[in-house]
Design goal:
- The protein is of the alpha/beta class and about 300 residues long.
- It is about 45% helix and about 15% strand.
- It has nine helices and nine strands.
- It has a six-stranded mixed sheet, sandwiched between helices. A three-stranded mixed sheet has the order 5-7-8.
- α2 (about 95-115) packs antiparallel against α8 (about 240-265).
- The protein is globular and about 55 Å long.
- It binds zinc ion (ZN).
- Zinc ion binds near residues 103, 164, 253 and 257.
- The site of zinc ion (ZN) has 4 residues, from α8.
Length: about 300
Amino acid sequence: MDQSTEYEQIRYEEPAEKVARIMLARADTRNAQDKKMLYEVDRALNRAMHDDAIRVVIIGADGPHFSSGHHMKDYSRIGDFTPPIMGVGGYDRPGQEGHMAMEQEIFIGFCWRWRNMPKPTIAQVQGKAIAGGLMLVWPFDLIVASEDAQFSDPVLAFGVNGHEYFVHAWELGHRKAKEMLFTGGAISAQEGKELGMVNQVVPRDELESYTLDLASKIARQPPFGLKLAKLAVNQSLDAQGMYSAIHSAFGLHHLGHANSRILYEMGVDPTGQKKIRKEAREQIEDGEKRMAEARK
Ligand code: ZN
């Protein structure tokens, strides 16, 4: 077990008794996720799970936006920072094989591992959570969002069904999931609450204190009861086929990547990739402008 307390992309905090908080600390890149960040999040979650003094974990983010998704210019390789966790192997294999292995390790592998960690986890979300950004929201147990939070997954434009942790229908219901994917549009915090995806919506300046109070309230509950309740709810979803459904969708995701590899000699449709990057940049800049004006 790696208990190193050194992090570059995140911070590990203990803001209240029995509560750990993992903050994505790359506001300069709108918390775009590279491999280093995902391994640091995994290591920090592991640390919180193994620390008997911690009962609840919050995952939040610095800056105006929770996360803009995968870092598109992350050229690091699996194994550069820490040995692989999920035991997949073959990350450098040619064809679709290496790409699939990489995503099995750090995307669907990590998300499913985090979803099954025994202690309650709370995502604290402001601003945009785009595509891969949802991989640091949906695996966690509760979601507290500020009024400005928006959730989107526009990656159909580059030739795949959605981002790699395909729980859309479970989170939103099947019709809204299709609308979100077909249009590439965003679900607001309030809409997310009405759909049952978001637990609570609070003003932006109360996001941190509200989430911390909620975590502290849960942390006063008996830990074994919390563990059993979490297991019981997760197993209810598993009994409905959640594991099989999301892993089957992951197979379709790689059919999409492989198709693009044949057509464009890269894992995604380059036209769609450009479009998504441009739209994400515009959305983020627009949101930041509006926030700056609101502060005047
Ligand atoms: Zn992918």
